[in-house]
C-alpha cells in the first residue's frame, strides 16, 4: 500500500526528504526494527540505545501529523512548502496511527521496564 501511494502521488518534494521514504529506511534498519520484538526477549536492552531508537520515531510521527511539508529543492536557502492532498493526509494518519504509534507504545513500555529493572537491581 505504501509503495503504491509513492507512485501515484507525485509531489515536488525530493525523494530523500519525504516522510514515507524516511519511514521505509527506518523499517529496513535492523537497529530500529527492535521495538517489534516481544518485551520479555528485549528487556535486557540498555536504556541508552532505546532512546536512540525513540527519537527518530517521534520526529517521524510529527512529520506525518502535519498537513504541510517543508522541504528544500536545491539548497537550504530555498525552503518550499508543499500542501499534502487529502488522500496523502489520510494515508499518513493511517500509517501514523497503526504502525508508528504502535512502535512508540512498545518502545516506551520497553524503556519503562528496563528503567525499572535497572533501578531495582542497583
Automatic annotation (TrEMBL):
The keyword Membrane is annotated on this UniProt entry: yes
Transmembrane segments: 44-60
Top-level taxonomic group: Eukaryota
One Pfam short name: CGLD27-like
The entry's keywords: Membrane, Plastid, Transmembrane, Transmembrane helix
Protein name: Ycf36
Source organism per UniProt: Synura sphagnicola
Lineage: Eukaryota, Sar, Stramenopiles, Ochrophyta, Synurophyceae
Amino acid at each position: 500500500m505504501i509503495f503504491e501511494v509513492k507512485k501515484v502521488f507525485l509531489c515536488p518534494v525530493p525523494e530523500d526528504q519525504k516522510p514515507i521514504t524516511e519511514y521505509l529506511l527506518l523499517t529496513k534498519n535492523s537497529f530500529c526494527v527492535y521495538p517489534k520484538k516481544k518485551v520479555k526477549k528485549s528487556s535486557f536492552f540498555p536504556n541508552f540505545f532505546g532512546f536512540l531508537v525513540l527519537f527518530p520515531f517521534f520526529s517521524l510521527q510529527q512529520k506525518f501529523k502535519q498537513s504541510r511539508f517543508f522541504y528544500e529543492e536545491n539548497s537550504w536557502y530555498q525552503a518550499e512548502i508543499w500542501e499534502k492532498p487529502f488522500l496523502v493526509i489520510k494515508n499518513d494518519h493511517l500509517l501514523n496511527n497503526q504502525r508508528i504509534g504502535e512502535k512508540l507504545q512498545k518502545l516506551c513500555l520497553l524503556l519503562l521496564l528496563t528503567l525499572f529493572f535497572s533501578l531495582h537491581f542497583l
